[in-house]
Amino acid sequence: MSVTVGIHDLAVATAGHTLALDALAAYNGTDPGKYRVGLGQDQMSVPGPDEDIVTMGAAAARAVLDRHGADGIRTLLLATESGVDQSKAAGVPVHALLGLPSTCRVVEFKQACYSATAALQAAAGLIARDRSERVLVIAADVARYELDSAAEATQGAGAVAMLVTADPAIAVLEHATGIHTADVDDFWRPNDSPTAVVDGKLSVEAYLDGIVRAWDDYRAHGGSPIDQIDRFCHHQPFTRMAVKAHRRLAEHVGVALDEGLIDVTTGYNRRIGNSYTASLYLALAALLDGADDLDGARVGMFSYGSGAVSEFFSLVVQPGYRSALRGAETEALLAARTPVDVARYRELHAGAALDSRFDVDTPVDSRGPFRFAGIRGRARRYAAN
Ligand code: CAA
């Protein structure tokens, strides 16, 4: 008998500072309409000196554990592009900060912005084998490009933690899925670089190619026809990209798709900016937290990670899902961020790359539950606030 698996809880975290893109536009002489309308971005979250993927991922997961406890969690999968170590999984310090039992496997998933989807599918596989297992999937990223580059306005930082279980309260993951991989140098980050290298125009084309190819594979593997998909969430490196994706999909399948339905999915990402692996799941959170009643709705999800791996899959929203949501918590987190000016943002950006050969104590800056305390003996240290 097949097991019904999906998202039982979903919590969001982001960094403690925010930069208004109008301020960035004024600084670099760009028309603010380019960012607000052309890219569909209003703000970006900016990490303080004591924040990174571990602190954000642990903060999101703390909220999940506070509600559901840790019983049955034997796997923690942390998906990220912005890993903090070449060897040790970032989920290991998260596991320690959360006080999870030692009887838990922890591993990091990497493939640019796509890997959270691979983690979700892996979680579903583990639960299909043993329906009593609950898997903690964390997507956490800091999107960092070079200062003064065209990509600068598409930075951001955020995390989503998902509790994946049998008989979930929020959304069931459907079996059909469509995948596509192509070796493309559209965006990557060499081992010696704190910022991503990107060919912006190629990346947009590779993403749009990915959606049609993943869609075709989804249909070839029993995925629902387009008229049976009620809502769509697309990966949002900048929210206007979701509109481009939707248009390309509509053109490909030869039907008119309502672009207005995409708007609600952009609510958090417009303010957080790109959060790479977390971005698609922030789009899902915004959709679920929106005003529409989605009981029983099928949501088409498009996940894209440069390099490039694409996946189109679908979720079915469960009756009563609203009682499992956290919209007010997410709004409060966004509102609690400290606005910074361009000078402070540039300082934080420049100070982010630490040389592990030098011990350092980071200043206490964040107000989240956990902080990056500094480097000792080349290892990163974390603490509870
Ligand atoms: N008012 C309104 N709109 C304006 C405007 C104004 N005053 N000025 C310009 N625009 C519009 C442009 O017409 C353009 O619209 P279209 O895309 O519809 O043509 C839009 O604003 C952007 O303008 P440009 O194309 O001139 O922007 P750019 O070349 O300076 O940079 C970018 C855009 C290439 C996306 C760049 O921000 C970038 O490289 N970003 C990082 C890469 C990225 O996010 N790629 C997305 C796909 S890859 C992926 O998804 C993985 C991932 O997360 C990184």
Task: Describe the structure in your own words.
The chain is of the alpha+beta class. It has two domains: 228 residues, Thiolase/Chalcone synthase (Peroxisomal Thiolase, Chain A, domain 1, 3-Layer(aba) Sandwich); 147 residues, Peroxisomal Thiolase, Chain A, domain 1, CATH 3.40.47. Helices cover 33% and strands 27% of the residues. The protein has twelve helices and 17 strands. Strand 16 and strand 17 form a beta hairpin. The protein is globular, with a radius of gyration of 19 Å. The termini are far apart. 50% of the residues are buried. It binds acetoacetyl-coenzyme A (CAA).
Which percent range fits the helix content?
A: 25-40%
Mean pLDDT: 97
Radius of gyration: 19 Å
Strand order of the largest sheet: 5-4-6-7-1-8-13-12-11
- What is the C-level CATH assignment of the largest domain? Alpha Beta
* End-to-end C-alpha gap: 46 Å
Q: Ranges with pLDDT <50 over ≥5 residues?
A: none
CATH topology of the largest domain: Peroxisomal Thiolase, Chain A, domain 1
Report the order of strands and helices: EEHHEHEHEHEEEEEHEHHHHEEHEHEEE
> What proportion strand?
25-35%
Instruction: Find the count of extended strands (DSSP E, 2+ residues).
Output: 17
Keywords:
385 residues; alpha+beta; Peroxisomal Thiolase, Chain A, domain 1; 2 domains; nine-stranded mixed beta sheet; globular; binds acetoacetyl-coenzyme A
Helices and strands in order, then pairings?
Elements: E1 5-14, E2 17-20, H1 21-28, H2 32-39, E3 43-46, H3 53-68, E4 73-79, H4 91-98, E5 105-109, H5 115-129, E6 134-143, E7 156-166, E8 171-181, E9 187-188, E10 197-198, H6 200-220, E11 231-234, H7 240-253, H8 260-263, H9 269-272, H10 279-289, E12 298-305, E13 309-317, H11 327-335, E14 338-339, H12 342-350, E15 360-361, E16 370-376, E17 379-384
Parallel strand pairs: 2-14, 4-5, 4-6, 11-12
Antiparallel strand pairs: 1-7, 1-8, 2-3, 6-7, 8-13, 9-10, 12-13, 15-16, 16-17
Helix pairs in contact: 3-4, 6-7
The structure holds acetoacetyl-coenzyme A.
Acetoacetyl-coenzyme A (CAA) binds next to helix 2 and helix 6.
